[in-house]
Amino acid sequence: MSVKCPMNTRQLVDEYFIENRTRLLDIAAFLDRLDRSNEDRQADDFRMRAFRQGLRELLSEEPGRIERVQMLLSDRTTELRERLDRKGAFGAYKPEGEAF
Length: 100
Prior knowledge:
Layout: H1 9-36, H2 46-58, H3 65-73
């Protein structure tokens, strides 16, 4: 069951358009920098595969985008690890055995 937003469309756009416009420009700049990078490995990177799939989800007309994007970026494994494999997070799920 979805909860109705207390703001109407006009109020939402008035309140949040500028900050989301900025986010969109940041993403466009990030993708342009990747295009200009020296390496052509971005298609192989698990993070970029998840990122691009997330961008496709954003274009969906179906409600529930946040859940679908969150699941794209989440580690769904339930087994405990003997030890942590890295101190920091990757930001997207890296399948076991996949190289950086």
